[in-house]
Amino acid sequence: MAKYADDAKALYELVGGKENISSVTHCATRMRFVLQDPDQADIEKIEALASVKGTFTQAGQFQVIIGNDVQEFYNEFVSISGIEGVNKEEAKTDAKKNMSLLQRMLAALAEIFTPLIPAIVVGGLILGFRNVIGDIKMLEEGTKTIAQVYPFWNGTYNFLWLIGEAIFHFLPVGITWSIAKKMGTTQILGIVLGITLVSPQLLNAYAVATTKAADIPFWDFGFAHIPMIGYQAQVIPAMLAGFMLAYLEIGLRKIVPNAVSMIVTPFFSLVPTVLAAHLILGPIGWKIGDVIANVVYSGLTSSLSWLFAALFGFLYAPLVVTGLHHMTNAIDLQLMSQFHGTNLWPMIALSNIAQGSAVLAIIFLHKGNEKEEQVSIPATISCYLGVTEPAMFGINLKYLYPFVAAMIGSGIAAVISVSSGVMANSIGVGGIPGILSIKPQYYLIFAFCMLIAIVVPFMLTVLFRKYNILNKVDQAPIRTFGKREFRTDSKKASNL
C-alpha cells in the first residue's frame, strides 16, 4: 500500500467526505481545503494522524500541514477521494464564500500588494545600500562618504538610483497593473493608466509642495483648467483609478456588442478613467493618503508614541491572524512617499522575530518531539526570514502561551524602536535580514531591538510554561536550564 494511503483516507473522512469538500489544492507544505461546513472537520482527530503536523484556518481555507511530502500525500488523497483538484487561484475564489465582507476586502488588498512586494523589498535594500555608501561620512576623519572618495562607488550610487526610482516613483504603474490582473481585466490598460499618473510631462509629486500655485502647469479646456500634477509614489490615487478602470471595463463588456468591443470597451474605459484620475480621484486620494500618513506618523512621534508603539507591537500578530495586517503595506508606502521612510515597518519586522523566538523556546521545551520539530524548526527559520503564519498557526496559537509571550516581547521591542526614532527606507525582508532596510544611523539601536525580540519571548515562553500561565493544552515534560521537570495532575516532580 502507498505510504500515505491510510492517512489520506482517514483525512478524507475526517473533513466530512466528498459532500463537504468544495475544493482542494496544496501549496509547498499544506493541504488546502474549502469546506462547505468547516465545523464538520474533526480537528482533534485530524491532528492525531501520523502524517499531520497541525491545522489552521485562514482566508476561508482549512489548511492541514503535511510537510515536504505534501505532493505525494495530495496525490494519494485525490486518488482515494476521487475529487478533482483545483489550482490555487480557483481555491482562493471558492474560499471567498466562507469569508465576511471585511475579510474579502482585506483579501483583495493582499492580492493587489503581494505581487509588488518582491520589487519593494529590492527597492528598500537598494536605498539602504545607497545610504551606506553615499550618505554616511565615514572616510577622511568623518568628512566624506565612500561615494565621494571612490569613483567606482560614486558610479554605483548613481546607477542604483535608476532601479530605486523605477520601483518607488513609478509604483502607481505596478498598482494599476496589479488591480487589472486581480480583477481579470485588460492588464495593458492598467499599465497605461499607471503611466498617465507618473508621466514626465506632469509636475513631479515631490515638487508640488515647493511650486507656487501660479507656476503649476495645467491642461486648458477653455471652460476648465486641470492641473498637470503627477502622482509619483502615491498609493491611494492609483488604487482608486485602478478600480474605476476595472469596473468600467467589466460593465462595458456586458453591454457592448462583441463586434465592436475591442474598440469601444478599451476607449471608453481608459479615457474617462484618466480624466477622472486627474480631476477627481487623484486629488481626493492624495488627501486621504496624507491624512492617514499624518495620523500614523503623529502617533509614532507624539508624546504618547510609546503607547502607540506598545499597542501596535503587541497587537500586530493578532492582526496577521485576522488578515488585517495587509492594510499596513499601503500605510508604509504612504509614509515612505510623504516622509521618505517608515517608522511602522521596523515594528513589523520585530514582531516576526518575536514569534520565531517563541517557537524556538518551544523547540527547547519539547526537545525530542520529532513530529512537532518537523513543523517548529522550519517555522522558526521562516519567522526569522519574515514569514510568520507557519509558526503562529502551527505552534504558537496551538499552545497560546508562546503566542502571548511573543506579543509581549514584540511590544517591548517596538517601544524601544519608536522611542529611538528608528526609520526604515522601505518595506524589506520582515525578519532578521530586515536590518538591511533600516536607515544606517539606526543600525545599532535596531540590532538591540532585535535582541530584545529574541530574548524576551524566549524567556517568557519558558516561564509561562514552567508556571502554567495561559497554558491549558501543553502537558509535555518541562525542560529547563540544567534540569528537567515533569508535571502531573497532582504534583510536580523534578529530575535533576
Task: Note the overall shape.
Answer: globular
Estimated helix fraction: 55-70%
Using DSSP, what is the number of strands? 9
The percent range for strand residues is 5-15%
Number of helices: 19
Structural class: alpha+beta
Number of domains: 3
Average pLDDT over all residues: 86
Strand order of the main beta sheet, please?
1-2-4-3
Order of helices and strands: HEEHEEHHHHHHHHEEHHHHHHHHHEEE
Gap between N and C termini: 46 Å
* pLDDT < 50 runs, ≥5 residues: 486-496
Rg, Cα atoms, Å: 26 Å
Main sheet makeup: 4 strands, antiparallel
Features of the shown structure:
9 strands, globular, 496 residues, 8% strand, Gyrase A, domain 2, disordered C terminus, alpha+beta, four-stranded antiparallel beta sheet, 3 domains
3D architecture notes:
Helix content is 60%, strand content 8%. With 496 residues, it is α+β, with helices and mostly antiparallel strands. The chain folds into three domains: 5-98, Gyrase A, domain 2 (2-Layer Sandwich), CATH 3.30.1360; 169-292, no CATH class; 305-495, no CATH class. It has a four-stranded antiparallel sheet with strand order 1-2-4-3, with helices on both faces. Strand 7 and strand 8 form a beta hairpin. Helix 9 packs parallel to helix 11 and helix 13 (305-322) packs antiparallel against helix 18. The longest helix has 44 residues, at 258-301. The two termini are 46 Å apart. 43% of the residues are buried. Mean pLDDT is 86; it is low at 486-496.
